[in-house]
Amino acid sequence: MFEFQLAKRLYTSKKGVKRISKPAVFIAVLGIAIGFIVMMITIAVVIGFKGEIRNKAVGFSSDIQLSNYNTMASYESHPIAVSDSLLTALQEYPDTRWVQRYSTKVGMIKTESSFQGMILKGVAQEFDTSFFTKYLVEGTLPVFNDSTSTNEVMLSKTVADLLDIHLDDRIFTYYAEDEGIKARRLKVVGIYQTNFYEYDKLYLLTDLYTVNKLNRWGVDQASGVEIAIKDYAKLEEVTEDLGDKFMGLEDAYGEPYIVNNVEQLNPQLFGWLALLDLNVWVILGLMMAISGFTIISGLLILILERTQMIGLLKGLGATNKMIRKVFIWLAIFLIGKGIFWGNIVGLSLCLIQSKFGVVPLDPAVYHVDKVPISLSLWWVVALNAATILISVLMLLGPSYLVSRINPATSMRYE
Questions:
Q1: Which of 99, 149, 98, 162 is nearest to 120 (CA)?
Q2: Shortest CA distance to 413 belongs to which of 399, 405, 20?
Q3: Exposed, middle or buried by CB within 10 Å (0-12, 13-18, 19+), for 25?
Q4: Per-residue pLDDT tens for 248-261?
Q5: How far is residue 200 CA from its own chain's centroid?
Q6: Residue 312 near residue 64, CB atoms below 8 Å
Q7: 347-373 residue pLDDT tens
Q8: Is 256:249 a contact under the CB 8 Å cutoff?
Q9: Around Cβ 15, how many Cβ atoms within 10 Å?
């Protein structure tokens, strides 16, 4: 193709290049590269941050919960009957990864010098320990079961530091009852730290039997069932489907069911995360505008520099459309060079941060101790394609400048 070959010749040739065009082209390529780097890092950080926060919220409460409808109107937990047949049915649901029982009890930890409100969460032997194992900083996880009480508990480093509690300490916990205050002494066998302050300061983890005994529930009862699904993208779909299946149903004790997902249980948290998407679009728009401005400036300078060549081509019979294609191809080469270096630098910075965490964050503010990074092939490819497409579309207007150049006068242009 004539236009492509001529543009390639102009791009690679060093002859006849004026001093004014070299810095202009360099700035245009640099602008594209810097803009692309900023866009790549922005997307990687926001996706990584949202993923970290979401995973921590899911780690404490799973993707979906089947619980007692009356719990929604009370701070105290109400039980539902959890039979083997119910667990089996949920486990055999096509989108289910695992299911586990849980029970909770609101109480307070009191030491000689201070106290702290908390939620004691009990789980059984089917509990998926991967999340808390990942964030375990001292000791071990308690023995989880539904038949005996170990009086073992795991709490967060946030609570431990606040109340000056250490590993193997025995702590007193208190629970309000209609008859008065009930006390329970528990041994600290593990300390975790997720840096998710709102949850760290609340949750203590122990066995299901202990919490059920505090609640005076039967062995077949629990606060609910936590359900992990295979694909988080299908969260709403699975929630609606399970909600329809359990709507209007009651357990063996006449208690109504309700199905909620993690986003419904934490609307403020996920509403805040949704706002980050707006910030991403604003940054992408600004960077795309800046990159487009620099490449347009470079294109205009290249057109003005090649005025004599344009006049000669018109004199030889080339149409304005053909000449426009030449300069658009030339600009695409420059855009490609900028995006190439943008990919090299952007991916390198993201990989360095992902592997070594060189940029730290205050976990008390951001819930993570370093800038999180998430790289995915599909969005990297999409970003490359979108940047090229939008940049080329922005060049269509300025490229019409070639039609304003008169062959006769251009021959005298210097």
A1: 149
A2: 405
A3: buried
A4: 899 989 999 999 99
A5: 20
A6: no
A7: 999 999 999 989 998 888 888 889 999
A8: yes
A9: 5
